[in-house]
């Protein structure tokens, strides 16, 4: 699978190079962008089209990188909390394994097997 991805990337690179070589004249055309708002206008520096394409590519790469970093941090925090929970559950399991069979850990909110006077039920 790794070799297939590499092969596809090489083919994509070669095709993009053919595109840029065959369209050098059109991509070298100078372009100035304009943002026309109601109250003002903004103009960009006149740059060739290929520079605008490269800037768009790098801007998209930066946005993807930021999204991946945020996701990585979120997953790291989730992994830490899950490891903490797993450790607590392992400790609880170990505590339950070391108790005699007749005893159990009472959970809050669950009724006890004892009568209110402390005597077990049925005795």
Number of strands: 4
Total of DSSP H or I helical runs spanning 4+ residues: 3
What is the makeup of the main sheet? 2 strands, antiparallel
Mean pLDDT: 86
Order of helices and strands: HHEEEEH
Arrangement of strands in the largest sheet: 1-4
Radius of gyration: 33 Å
- The separation of the N and C termini measures 70 Å
Net shape = elongated
Portion of residues in beta strands equals 5-15%
Helix content: 55-70%
Instruction: Please mark out the parts with pLDDT under 50 across 5 or more consecutive residues, or reply none.
Output: none
Describe the structure.
- With 123 residues, the chain is mostly helical.
- It has a domain at 22-98.
- It is 61% helix and 8% strand.
- The protein is built from 3 helices and 4 strands, in the order ααββββα.
- It has a two-stranded antiparallel sheet with strand order 1-4. A two-stranded antiparallel ribbon has the order 2-3.
- A hairpin with a 4-residue loop joins strand 2 (34-36) and strand 3.
- The longest helix is centred in the middle third of the chain and has 50 residues, at 49-98.
- The protein is elongated, with a radius of gyration of 33 Å.
- The termini are far apart.
Task: List the defining traits of the structure above.
123 residues, mainly alpha, two-stranded antiparallel sheet, 8% strand
